[in-house]
Fold this protein.
Amino acid sequence: MEVIAEIANSHQGSVKILKKLLNKLSKINIKIIKFQIYFADELLTKGHKRFSHFQRQAFSEKEWIKILKYSKKKKFKIYTDIFGTKAFKISKRMNVDGYKIHSSDLCNLKILKLLNKSKKKIFLSCGSANGFEINYALKRLKNVNVVLMHGFQDYPTKLKDNNLYRLNWLKRNFTRRKINFGFQDHTNGENLNKSILISTNAISLGSKYIEKHVTLSRSLKIDSSSSLEPSEFKNYVNQLYDFVPSLGKKEFEISVAEKNYRKTVKKFVVANKFLKKDSLLSSKDIDFKRVDKPFNIKSSFLEDFIGKKINKDISPDELLRQVDFKNKINALIIVRLKSTRLKKKSILKINGEYLIEHLIKRVKKINGINKIILCTSTSSQDDKLIKIAIKNKINFFRGDELNVLKRIYNCSKKFKCDQILRITGDDILTDKYYAEKTINTHLKNNSDYTDCKNIPSGTEIEVFSVKTIRNLYENLVDSSGTEYLTNYIIENKDQFSISSCKVKKKHKSKVRLTIDTIEDFKNVEMMLKSFYKKKITYDYNIDDILNYYSLLKKKPKNSNIKQKVKPKNFNTKLTWRKIEK
């Protein structure tokens, strides 16, 4: 947030008074100031009744150059209100930090064109402006960062006329690109507490910039009614900055204190009587209670357990964990042949077999999996993958080509599973040991999502509860990026119960084994051929992989390739506006 000291005309047309004010502001550590640079002949017609008044108030071009140089020596960040092209040229010459245009200039095409080339921050005063005028200015300021400033000057502005809800209207209607918002506080300077209150309210509504008039003394005639004196302004700024941390850093983020509170008061699903092994759990068998020291166990919903077979005897008041119940865990191999970097990579061959077949045979070795499902698209080019699934005696599912989440969701519904081991076709070296360990971590902690990172890429593991897949499917704002499904979890981490499988120190590695490029393919091909010669076809593990790389005399050609990252053209936010079915 920035609090801007608006100088306006509090200088009374005197350079001496202005310098005295700047000195006081500098001594009390005010960092940001704003000047109004205007010339009477640019601001009004000569016949205007206030022409002579503004002519007396205005500084000459030479005086403005001296004032701006003096302000820079005082280390102020400087913004300037410009009321004409001459004012703009002076500001540009002195390389100020940003420009502001008055609401009366929102349709001034000459000014807008100059500002659009400035590469500086542009403040648009929206007080008394309508939506068409604001939109006109924004359309012509496409190359600069814009701040929309709500508020107007009424000498002083009455509280009822501030209409802070206008900030909501601005945010709702003008967010087609990254735009920030601010508030111009013109309330009565004689009531500091009201100024602080209305400005903090504006901050809570999304204002990142607050502008307030400052004067040497309210006994001075011009621009004094809504101004604070320097000592008051210092108090005002301090209190606003003290308020800001109460807003939090993000729109939704559970603080450390909240997390600690949550651990203390959260209720968990516990047995209300002795439960015998192999019995089916019913709603009559459980209660919700606080549990002392639940450690990493996540709170679950009753529906996560009802109807499941119990794997062991459970005592009264014992916390229920998924690991103690029979779960249907399906491995979903997410693959299609329309790859971009390396064409049809899943049906390239190493040691005489397709890459996707090698992956299937690796996954078959993972204990605890109910079904392996090749999850591909309805595109005819993926018919080849279905034949491979049938040949290898695994299930298959065909769904939406682009919306990966929809495909996974519909697949999970068809095969009625509880948990999903998600494996992408790029990662043919999925590791048995860490897959089983990650599944166990996931079930022990009642997690929504569990990952296993820091092992070589291409061997990493992810486990989702089906409930999490459903929640994502029903609540995403934008599903166009679900090829990068993990990002939706990580960027909404406080909405989900997330766990990570512990990795042995000796297995932590940045070796790149995912297959996304021809260099990646050749790298994995060399390794698998080496294993094949040693008659290790599918039973190799992380130790075998890392030993192989430790013996290489030079780095693989793919070691400098960067992992394909999530594009920035889709929204990962969740919404609860959709009607619950």
The chain has a mean pLDDT of 92. The chain is about 35% helix and 15% strand. Residues 329-551 form a domain with the Spore Coat Polysaccharide Biosynthesis Protein SpsA; Chain A fold (CATH 3.90.550.10). Residues 518-533 form the longest helix (16 residues).
